[in-house]
Amino acid sequence: MAKKDYYQILGVKKDAKADEIKKAYRRLARKYHPDVNPNDKAAEDKFKEVQEAYDVLSDDKKRKVFDKFGYFNENLDPDAPFGAGARAGASGAPGFDFSGFDFSGTSGAGSGSSFRDIFSDLFGGSGGAGTRAQPEPPRAMPKKGRDIEIPLALSFEESFSGLTTNITVNRSEQCSRCQGAGDTGGPVVACTTCKGTGQVMKAGGRLQFAQDCADCAGTGRRRTPCSLCNGKGTTPKSEQVKVRIPAGVDTGSRVRIPKKGHGGRLGAEPGDLFIVTNVGKHPFFTRKGDNIYVTVPVSVPEAALGAKIEVPTVEGKAQLKIPAHTESGQKFRLRERGFPSLRNPTLRGDQFVEVKITLPRVLSEETKEVLRQFEKLNSENPRKAMGLE
Fold first, then answer.
1. I need a labelling partner for 46 at 20 to 30 A (CA). Which of 138, 173, 315, 341 fits?
2. pTM score
3. CATH class of 183-225
4. Residue 260: is its pLDDT beyond 50?
């Protein structure tokens, strides 16, 4: 049988401390656990190898034998002269025997322990003689609360002028009983979230993958959860929050209200509340950046002779001078009649007015005769520049 380097299997140095070895073992055992890798023979073999390495290196006497001889055999004496120890071990095959373990979850005939026993020893649970002492589960650390996003529908006019409104926010706050710890310092029990495994399954599209349980930090064990917050460290709260939406917001703008998100844990500050605006369409105004665009109809005489006309703006009516010989599609600018700038509220965009010449409805013979006379007096061919008669 080829010799195995148990330090290399666990990925630790030869002078590694006991807690380093245990930490490496737990990480690899969770990674290659058969429950996490069903029907994966390679992962099962790797799990056995990791368990074998830990069984030796976690025991001071066994580790001493391995360090001295380069392999482990229970018949070897680490304090005996090297030659004597080698002869004594020649009759026994080195290594760790897994034949007594049943990976189906039940003990086979004559087996002293099952795969579930290893699982219990690894992730925390009741055990009889030979069960290693489990480390204390990690205490919760201060953690800032999560942010909250809430959509808010606004009219075109509300986005132009801004508004102040009250919004109902369903958020959480730090638990008053455990101060966000999630427990009150009671006895250690198996984590109910991951059922003591230290891992939970997450779906990613069609695939499923395992990740460390957030409630027990992957240890599989935790203190008795706080009865008020059920171990979450926070309790739900519904709150009316006054929100000021500044003038000039557009669809997708994010308005931040500090510390009105979910509560933090162990004194950490809450997250923030973000209002995401969705601005409705206007019947005739269009917004591009901070500028406003509108199309206004004009009559033939107004376009030909020039005129002063009224045009709409978001703030009301405005006067616009149309010069003579204005053509359809021509644009005019009304300065600073657009949206306020979010970056600098003292600045405003412009409003652009596009004129569209509309033809009169010819209903009477008198009107038709006037148009015929107009054509005779203005016989210019508008298609001449295109080489057409």
1. 138
2. 0.57
3. mainly beta
4. yes
Amino acid at site 137: P
Bridge-based pairing state of the strands 351-358 and 291-299: parallel
DSSP code of 94? -
Fold of 6-98: Helix Hairpins (1.10.287)
pLDDT tens figures, 81-94: 544 444 444 444 44
For residues 387 and 374, give the distance between their C-alpha atoms in angstroms, rounded to a whole number.
23
Let me know: does 182 contact 272? Beta carbons within 8 Å.
no
Helix (H, G, I), strand (E, B) or coil at 350: coil
Overall fold of domain 139-178+233-281 = HSP40/DNAj peptide-binding domain (2.60.260)
- CB 172, CB 145: distance < 8 Å: yes
Structure tokens at 207: 């695939």
**Residue 22: DSSP 8-state:** H
How far apart are the C-alpha atoms of 251 and 228, rounded to whole Å?
40
Burial zone of 103 (CB within 10 Å; 0-12 exposed, 13-18 middle, 19+ buried): middle
Give domain limits for the chain: 6-98, 139-178+233-281, 183-225, 287-361
